[in-house]
Design a protein that fits this description.
This is BirA family biotin operon repressor/biotin-[acetyl-CoA-carboxylase] ligase. By secondary structure, the chain is α+β, with helices and mostly antiparallel strands. The chain contains 5 helices and 15 strands. The relative contact order is 0.15.
Length: about 270
């Protein structure tokens, strides 16, 4: 098991009326196969704690959507996994958690990169037409009384910060350094990202699902525009209208279409 350091962040308690939980503690892992794997192992072993976050300096087998590998230069980027206890949130509303976490990453990145930051459905963060961050949420379910209980959610985020060159496997990446010309303290930014996660988690916990969906729509990449999507081997053009409460992408051309996560891929020129 890797050596770790617990980072105490006093400014998370700057508002005594608010109980901050996400990012306390923030554990720094010098090297790990995957922060999501590390966090999920704690959940399986019964050692998980809501809000515990794990930041890796190096990740050797990072995971992305559709089983893809997430590659990142050691120490240059945010590699972060957060343990969330969904509580009373039913599993069929899992997209609300996905949307809330996407909004946290979107707001965080937008704070430095500006208004050209968007959320590409379902939960990539784009700056212009280039990918700045990816999010992967993995869930653990338990069975009680014959019913599936949403026990834990592991929210993994990879955010390009100081990396200036990318492997050829990345088609359209961008980092905060490339956008701003500045170098950043990556670990400090990971703490800031946890604060944004806490903000949107509190909104979700307070039952503000409609506000979350509204904010998600306002931040959507290419909303109201014609895009190319690929389903199986077929590429087609359609107009992005938004998302449903269940997380389906809603588009329209000759008819209204609804696509589940993983059913279609974006085709970007």
């Amino acid at each position: 098991m890797p050596i770790f350091v617990v980072v105490k962040n006093s400014n998370l308690l700057s508002h005594p009326a608010i109980l901050h939980t996400i990012g306390r503690p923030l554990t720094v892992l010098p090297s790990v196969d995957s922060t999501n794997n590390y966090a999920m192992a704690l959940a399986i072993e019964g050692k998980a704690k809501h809000g515990a976050a794990f930041f890796a300096l190096e990740q050797t087998a990072g995971k992305g959507q559709r089983g893809r590998q997430w590659l990142t230069a050691p120490g240059d980027n945010i590699i972060l996994s957060t343990i969330i206890k969904p509580g009373e949130l039913p599993f069929y509303q899992q997209f609300l958690l996905s949307a809330a976490m996407a909004l946290s990453c979107y707001e965080f990145f937008k704070n430095y990169a500006g208004d050209e930051t968007r959320i590409k459905w379902p939960n990539d963060i784009y700056w212009r037409d280039r990918k700045a961050a990816g999010i992967l949420i993995e869930n653990r379910l338990e069975t009680a009384g014959g019913q599936a209980i949403w026990d834990w959610a592991i929210v993994g985020m990879g955010v390009n910060i100081n990396q200036a060159r990318f492997d050829g496997a990345f088609r359209n990446p961008v980092s905060l350094k490339q956008i701003t010309g500045r170098n950043f303290d990556v670990q400090a930014l990971a703490t800031t990202l946890c604060e944004y996660q806490e903000k949107w988690w509190k909104k979700l916990s307070a039952g503000e699902g409609r506000d979350i969906l509204r904010a998600y729509h306002e931040a959507m990449y290419r909303i109201g525009e014609k895009v190319k999507l690929k389903k199986d081997s077929s590429v087609f053009e359609t107009n992005v209208c938004g998302v449903t409460e269940q997380g389906q992408l809603h588009t329209k051309d000759v008819m209204d279409r609804y696509f589940a996560v993983g059913e279609v891929e974006w085709v970007l020129d």
